[in-house]
Specification:
By secondary structure, this protein is an all-alpha fold. 83% of the residues lie in helices and 0% in strands. The protein contains 18 helices and no strands. Helix 3 (81-105) packs antiparallel against helix 4 (107-121) and helix 5 runs antiparallel to helix 6.
Length: 425
C-alpha cells in the first residue's frame, strides 16, 4: 500500500466525524425550526390567531434568516465555519427556550424572538459547505451533502413525532424548552469535536496532516470575487434553483401539519405523525441520490448530465406531488402525494446543492450564503402568502399550484445555464 493511499484511508474516519457532526447540527436546526409548525395549532387557539396571523408568526423566522444570510457568509469567510456555527447553535437554542415566554409577553415579542432565531440559524448551511470544501475530495461530496441535507427531514421527523406526545403531556411550551436545552448541550460538544480544517486537527498524524493541509491551502478563500461570480450564468442557475426548490420545502415545512389538520381533519397529534412519512421519503431519496451520483461519477458518467437530470426530476416530481395532493380526498391519499413531493425535492442534494462545490470550491461557503439568501425568500413570500390565500379562498389548491409553477420555471433555467466547470480560480 502506498503512503498516499494509506494516508487517505486513515483520513476517512476524521472526515466521517465531521460529516456526522454537520448532519447532527442540521438536524437540531430543523428540530428547533419545525416545532412551531405543530405548536402553532394550539398556540393559535390559545391566543386567538387568524390564519394570517399564523402566517406572520411562521414568516418572522425567515425574515431574520434572510437578513443574516449575507453577513453570515462574510463571518464564515473571515472566522471559519466551526466558530460561527458553534456560536449560532448556542444562540438559536437559547431563542428556542425563550419562545414560550415571548408568546405570553405578546405577539411583537414572539416575532422578535423568532427573527433572532432566524438570524442565528442563517449560518448553518454556508458554514457546513465551507467545511466540506476544505475537508472532502470531489468523489465524496455528493453523498456528504446528501447526508448533511438529510438533517432536514430527520430533524423534522423528530420534531413532528415528538410533538403530539409532548403537547398532550406537558403542553406546547415544553416542546421549546426540551429542544432548546438539547441544542445548548450539542453546541458545547461541537466546539470539542469539530475542527476548522484538516491541517489543524490534533489527532491526525504528520503524513496525513501534510496531505490534507494541501487541500486546505487549495480551498482557503481570499477576498471573494463577487463581481466575477455574479456575472456567471451557472451561479445564477444555482441561485434560482435554490429559490424554486425551497418554495416547496418551506411550504411543506411550515404548513403541512396545518393542511393535514384543517383539510384532512386529523387532530394535532395525528397531523404531526402523518407528516413524518413524507420527510422520511425526503431523507431516503436524498441520500440515495447522493450515493448514486458519486458512484456514477466514479464510473465516468458525465457529472453535468447527472446534475441536470437529478435537479430536473426533483423540481418536476415535486410539482406533480403538490398538484395531486391538492386533489386528494382522504388522509392516506394526501400523505402519499406529499411523500412524492418531498421525495422528489430531496434529490436536490445531488443537484444544485452539491453544484456549489463543483463551480466554486474555494468560495463554496460564501456562495452558498448568497444562494441561500435567495432560497430564504420563499420562506417569507410563500409562507405568508399561504396564510393570506387560506383566509381568502379557504383551501390549499392555489398555494400548491403556485409552488408547482415556480418549479417549472426553475427547470427551464437549470437546463439552460447549469454547469460543473469552475467559474473562478
Amino acid at each position: 500500500m502506498t503512503t498516499t493511499a494509506a494516508t487517505t484511508r486513515s483520513a476517512i474516519p476524521k472526515r466521517l466525524i465531521l460529516v456526522v457532526m454537520c448532519f447532527l447540527a442540521t438536524s437540531i436546526c430543523y428540530v428547533d425550526r419545525v416545532n412551531i409548525s405543530v405548536a402553532v395549532i394550539p398556540m393559535a387557539e390559545r391566543f386567538h390567531w387568524s390564519a394570517t396571523t399564523k402566517g406572520a408568526v411562521l414568516t418572522s423566522f425567515f425574515i431574520g434568516y434572510l437578513l443574516a444570510m449575507l453577513p453570515g457568509g462574510w463571518l464564515i469567510a473571515r472566522f471559519g465555519g466551526r466558530l460561527v456555527l458553534g456560536f449560532a447553535l448556542a444562540a438559536w437554542s437559547l431563542a428556542t427556550v425563550l419562545t414560550p415566554a415571548a408568546a405570553f409577553a405578546g405577539l411583537p415579542f414572539l416575532i422578535a424572538v423568532r427573527v433572532a432565531m432566524g438570524v442565528a440559524e442563517a449560518a448553518t448551511f454556508p458554514a457546513v459547505i465551507g467545511l466540506f470544501a476544505r475537508w472532502l475530495p470531489s468523489t465524496e461530496r455528493s453523498r456528504a451533502v446528501a447526508l448533511q441535507l438529510g438533517g432536514i427531514p430527520i430533524g423534522t421527523i423528530v420534531g413532528l413525532s415528538a410533538a403530539g406526545g409532548v403537547i398532550a403531556t406537558w403542553g406546547w411550551e415544553a416542546m421549546f424548552w426540551l429542544f432548546g436545552a438539547g441544542g445548548l448541550v450539542f453546541a458545547g460538544l461541537w466546539f470539542v469535536i469539530v475542527h476548522e480544517a484538516p491541517g489543524r486537527h490534533p489527532r491526525i498524524g504528520a503524513g496525513e496532516r501534510d496531505l490534507l493541509a494541501a487541500r486546505e491551502a487549495a480551498t482557503t478563500p481570499g477576498p471573494v470575487p463577487w463581481r466575477t461570480l455574479l456575472s456567471k450564468r451557472p451561479v445564477w442557475a444555482i441561485i434560482i434553483s435554490h429559490f424554486c426548490s425551497n418554495w416547496t420545502l418551506y411550504l411543506m415545512l411550515t404548513w403541512m401539519p396545518s393542511y393535514l389538520h384543517d383539510v384532512q381533519h386529523l387532530d394535532v397529534g395525528k397531523a404531526g405523525l402523518a407528516a413524518v412519512l413524507p420527510w422520511a421519503c425526503y431523507f431516503i431519496a436524498g441520500n440515495a441520490a447522493g450515493w448514486g451520483c458519486d458512484a456514477l461519477v466514479a464510473r465516468g458518467v458525465s457529472l453535468l448530465r447527472i446534475r441536470k437530470v437529478v435537479q430536473t426530476v426533483a423540481l418536476l416530481g415535486a410539482s406533480a406531488g403538490l398538484l395531486l395532493a391538492a386533489q386528494a380526498t382522504t388522509p392516506t391519499g394526501a400523505v402519499a402525494m406529499l411523500c412524492l413531493a418531498l421525495a422528489a425535492n430531496g434529490l436536490i442534494s445531488a443537484g444544485f446543492a452539491a453544484n456549489h462545490l463543483d463551480i466554486a470550491p474555494r468560495y463554496a461557503g460564501p456562495l452558498y450564503a448568497v444562494s441561500n439568501f435567495a432560497g430564504t425568500m420563499p420562506g417569507i413570500i410563500g409562507v405568508y402568502i399561504t396564510g393570506a390565500l387560506l383566509d381568502l379562498t379557504g383551501g390549499y389548491g392555489w398555494t400548491f399550484a403556485a409552488a408547482a409553477g415556480v418549479n417549472v420555471v426553475g427547470v427551464a433555467v437549470w437546463l439552460a445555464w447549469a454547469s460543473v466547470d469552475p467559474v473562478v480560480d
